[in-house]
Write a structure and sequence with these properties.
This protein is of the alpha+beta class. The chain has helices at residues 25-28, 37-40, 92-99; strands spanning 64-66, 69-76, 79-84. Helices cover 15% and strands 16% of the residues. 30% of the residues are buried.
């Protein structure tokens, strides 16, 4: 079971458990296990270096690690969101399949 599934309210960061300052309830409810910007700033890649963003999904570092927790980033509408991985997924597609009941990769 996903701790913060999409479609349900999430008021706190999935990593630090602090209330969101940058996301409203409606936005946060669109994503599983959303991570706050403060935690995302600590993200590192698999080599332990500061994680980089790419201009599109699949570019830049993915997965990233925040305080040792695996997360996946998604570029959307000119910004990026980061989500905590509860299942140690091998790809962003697998992350979506395991964290979203409504996801279809067909």
């Amino acid at each position: 079971m996903v701790e913060f599934p999409p479609g349900e309210e999430q008021h706190i960061c999935a990593i630090c458990r602090e209330p969101f300052e940058e996301f409203d309830d409606e936005f946060a409810s669109n994503y599983a296990n959303l991570v706050c910007r403060t935690c995302d700033e600590r993200a590192v890649n698999a080599e332990g270096e500061s994680a980089k963003f790419g201009p599109h999904d699949g570019q830049g570092d993915n997965p990233v690690f925040i305080d040792g927790v695996k997360c996946w980033r998604r570029i959307r509408f000119g910004g990026a969101i980061t989500r905590k991985d509860e299942f140690d997924c091998d790809s962003v597609g697998e992350f979506h399949r395991k964290h979203r009941d409504d996801y279809s990769d067909r």
